[in-house]
Amino acid sequence: MDFTQKCTKNKQLKICKIAQQILYLQVTKKIMKTIISLATRLIPRHYLQHVSHFFLRIFSLFMRGNRFEDPINGKTYRKLLPYGRINSRENAIAPDSMSLERHRLMWLFMKEKTNFFTGNLKLLHIAPEYCFIKLFNGMKNLDYTTGDLISPWANVKMDVHDIPFSENNFDVVICNHVLEHVEDSHKVMTEFYRVMKPGGWGIFQVPIDTNNPKTEEDKSVTDPKERERLYWQDDHLRLFGLDYGTKLAAAGFKVTESDFINELDPKLVERYALPKGEIIYFCEKYK
Asked: At what angle do helices 101-113 and 130-138 cross, to 10 degrees?
């Protein structure tokens, strides 16, 4: 075998190895998508919350790089994990903090647009997200209370239809992706308003069908598969539309529908893997 033949063979071997690596990554990605999709659909959320952060920290060791950055903890990755029960989203979960796109956007919004990191605030955090709990607990300016009916991370067990605190109690109320699950969303909104101090504020994000001007809700729909088809998850009781801000205002809030995402440098939107088009519903209680 002459030198030219050896070079050709070596190039072919390198190409084969690269092709094998690409195939391996593609298969691994599909497996991860399938595992996460099945886990989020079949395992109750409060059970997943007990164990998922341990496994994700192991995965994170193999995902280090510099393409993406989690602004919550500053860690960087070559890729993030996918997430989604039905339609899996690429680069959604930052494995160390367990933050999703909406959490990272809310973190930046609170830093840029609120007194969250500077004021002395009494905070009620309902359905507390893992990515925030330790950080909020460690912030000396916060008097921090977490609440939920079943979350293992909540220090007050409560039904959001009847929050066990007096009126005008909290400077800030945060509750994300809960109102689509509750029996009476208006009642829960009025509870948020009741326990908030005059001059206080809250953020209450929900899944929204931006193609629908009105919220879809039908109490006669009880079949899980039909709920999944209509409302995007089998445990959702409604799918909010573009009238969501109006519904919050009907509970008493002054509502700002902020397109903060469009104020950010597009390069940062990509680096932080933020949800393009997401509106932040910033709700204030009149003084």
From this structure: 30
Yes or no: say if 176 and 205 are a contact pair by the CB < 8 Å rule: yes
Q: How many CA atoms lie within 13 A of 24 on its CB side?
A: 6
Q: Which residues on neighbouring strands pair with residue 170, listed in sequence order? A: 196
Residue 23, Cβ neighbours under 10 Å: how many?
A: 10
What residues have CB less than 8 Å from 126, skipping those under 6 apart?
146, 147, 148, 160, 173, 174, 175, 178
Helix (H, G, I), strand (E, B) or coil at 243: coil
| Residue 222 contacts residue 228 (beta carbons within 8 Å) | no
CA angle 148, 151, 156 (to 5 degrees): 40
Termini Cα distance of the chain = 87
Question: Is 0.70 topped by the overall pTM?
Answer: yes
How are strands ordered across the β-sheet holding 142-148? 156-157, 142-148, 121-126, 170-175, 196-203, 280-284, 254-258
Rounded-to-integer distance, Cα 257 and Cα 270, Å = 22
pLDDT over 50 at 112, yes or no = yes
**Domain locations in the chain as residue ranges:** 3-93, 101-284
CATH class of the domain comprising 101-284 = alpha beta
Model confidence band, residue 287 (pLDDT cutoffs 50, 70, 90): confident
